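User: tokens in, sequence out, please.
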């Protein structure tokens, strides 16, 4: 299992059809029976979904809606201050609701006219080849559950806040959406797990945790930063290195901590040329070629 896949709580389906989400011992909701039952029910709906049909609608509780309202308001303020202009303009066009959790069908209806992307439900971890590969068809697999109400500004796993307020606001930019599509097209060309991991790691340090220099300041564009109440401020204290595909694809990193090293672009155009250009040409030999090059240390 690749590193970032460890973030998701495992989901299993028993012989009798019962669906169980296995929360870690450190999860804020692990000792809350009602929350665990809720997670199981939402996961079961996602597992029962059939491609090409409408995503199941979730009847969110008032408690869940309250969590969304808190996080959406806080992240909107931080996004305005710390995100790059491309993301802020895309988020304004997308205009996601702050007063309720949007259904995935609502997200798709808002997003498709802007970038051609639509959302499909996921119970938890989607196999990485399927997850990244779906970008070629402009499909993004998204969880529908919400973090535990005891810690509205924290989650140990990707939830609807991350998938929607992070990725959808990014995907509303046609420029970023095109990079996603290029990554998806690359998956169709590569066959080895080594190449897939290399692609996933480059994606991690760009579309998840990418930063860009803008008007003399460091701003973020990565969905992982856009959706993290804490790290969206702390990223400015990271060690910044220039975009370097070899370094990004071979870096060793800890997903459970704020990223101490980030790769900073000088413009959105550089992200398109360097990251998008790499995905457009990537093949199974890309990691092997990278192994013979020593990344720059700065």
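Assistant: Sequence out:
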């Amino acid at each position: 299992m690749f590193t970032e896949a460890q973030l998701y709580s495992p989901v299993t389906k028993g012989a009798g059809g019962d669906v169980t989400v296995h929360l870690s011992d450190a999860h804020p909701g692990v000792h809350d029976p009602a929350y665990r039952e809720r997670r199981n029910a939402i996961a079961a709906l996602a597992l029962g979904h059939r491609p090409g049909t409408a995503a199941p609608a979730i009847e969110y509780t008032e408690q869940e809606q309250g969590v969304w309202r808190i996080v959406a308001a806080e992240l909107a303020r931080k996004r305005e201050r710390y995100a790059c202009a491309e993301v802020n303009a895309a988020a304004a066009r997308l205009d996601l609701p702050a007063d309720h959790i949007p259904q995935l069908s609502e997200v798709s209806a808002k997003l498709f006219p802007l970038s051609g992307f639509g959302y499909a439900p996921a119970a938890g971890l989607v196999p990485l080849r399927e997850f990244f590969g779906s970008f070629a068809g402009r499909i993004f697999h998204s969880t529908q559950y919400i973090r535990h109400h005891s810690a509205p500004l924290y989650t140990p796993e990707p939830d609807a806040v991350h998938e929607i307020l992070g990725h959808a606001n990014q995907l509303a930019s046609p420029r970023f959406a095109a990079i996603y599509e290029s990554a998806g097209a690359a998956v169709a060309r590569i066959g080895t797990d080594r190449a897939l991991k290399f692609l996933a790691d480059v994606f991690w340090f760009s579309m998840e945790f990418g930063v860009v220099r803008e008007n003399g300041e460091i701003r973020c564009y990565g969905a992982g930063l856009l959706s993290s109440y804490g790290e969206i401020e702390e990223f400015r204290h990271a060690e910044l290195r220039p975009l370097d595909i070899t370094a990004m694809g071979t870096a060793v990193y800890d997903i459970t901590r704020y990223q101490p090293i980030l790769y900073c672009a000088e413009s959105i155009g550089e992200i398109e040329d360097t990251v998008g250009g790499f995905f457009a040409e990537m093949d199974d030999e890309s990691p092997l070629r990278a192994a013979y090059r020593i990344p720059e240390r700065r």
